[in-house]
Amino acid sequence: MEEKDLVRRLRRLRRTVDMLQTDLRHGHLNNTLLAEIEAHMEHGLATEPRCLGLRTSVDAMRECTFTPRPELHADTLRAGDQVKDAIEELVSGKR
User: Fold this and answer.
1) Is residue 24's pLDDT more than 70?
2) Which of 19, 68, 69, 88 has CA 20 to 30 A from 27's CA?
3) CA–CA dist 91, 46 (Å, integer)
């Protein structure tokens, strides 16, 4: 995948994670956004060798949503921050 395409896809993923976190802060787990995050990963990011750490972070975030209880939203928010940190590292070229 070309660098520009990777950065564009990563930024779209970050926006989706931001929207998911916003919904979680309002007490709502948005399954549509979870499916969109899954689609971002399935359509190129999961197979991109440079995104190995990102895959791990996204998987950890998704695991937090398997039991959709409001008391676990904080765990999902923290996991979302880790996903965004991994994206920032990739976009800024630190990895």
Assistant:
1) yes
2) 88
3) 16
Q: How many CB atoms lie within 10 A of CB 52?
A: 11
Summarize pLDDT for 46-81 with one digit per residue, the tens.
Answer: 999 999 889 999 999 999 888 777 888 899 999 999
CA 9/CA 94 separation, integer angstroms: 17
Place of tokens 């520009």: 4
Instruction: Answer for the pair 17, 57: CB distance below 8 angstroms, yes or no.
Output: no
**Separation of alpha carbons 48 and 45, rounded Å:** 5
**Helix/strand number for the chain, H first, E second:** 4, 0
Specify whether the CB–CB gap between 94 and 10 falls below 8 A: no
Kindly report the CA angle at 72 between 69 and 75, in degrees rounded to 5? 155
Element spanning 9, H or E? helix 3-25
CB 61 within 8 A of CB 74: no
pTM of the model: 0.90
